[in-house]
Amino acid sequence: MKxxxxxxxxxxxxxxxxxIYDQISTPIRFENExxxxxxxxxxxxxxxxxxxxxxxxxxxxxxxxxxxxxxxILNETLEMERKLVDEDDSVAMAQLKKxxxxxxxxxxxxxxxxxxxxxxxxxxxxYNLRYIPGTDNKAQFILEAGIIxxxxxxxxxxVECRAPYTLFLDTITYRQEIVNLIDDEVNNFNRxxxxxxxxxxxxxxEAGNWED
Length: 212
Prior knowledge:
By secondary structure, this protein is an alpha+beta fold. The protein has one domain (35-211). The protein has six helices and five strands, in the order H-H-E-H-E-H-E-E-H-H-E. It has a three-stranded antiparallel β-sheet. Strands 1-2 form a two-stranded antiparallel ribbon. The longest helix has 58 residues, at 2-59. The termini are far apart. The relative contact order is 0.14. The model is unreliable at 14-18 (pLDDT under 50).
């Protein structure tokens, strides 16, 4: 009987120790997961922002369609400018002036070869821009674009791209932790509960909320 009691007591102690350990380690594991996944999402959403800014530079608007954005990146070019001669080279500048030419040359460069530099994206990378990292290509960034009229009656294009925490964090393992995180972001810090750039309500130069 004494042996049975000792075994039961040992089981209770082990269970108690496990509960304490889990209570201590869960917040740490959750914080590490948030940091790792946020980093991945931010890296990709920055590429989306770079593509949107380039698209706007050519078409004076943003796009809400990832297929359109991918086609732009893979198949289109941007017009760039470069100086023909060094402006500190007085001889070359004199010759250029004599020829009647301006010290500017325009040229075309493939979108994909310039906007992500020095990083290189493959065709597959471009098509996968729409997917939130860590979701096995099942969850997509929420992308919106349009135009608004400011208080000074200026019409401007706007864009917003976002990834809510509920789409890229483990809502099963860390259900309560995510509930608490969202509540904290929304009610205590008045921030979007996730990663985003831009705004459909105001022109903010496509600012990212991770840059606050």
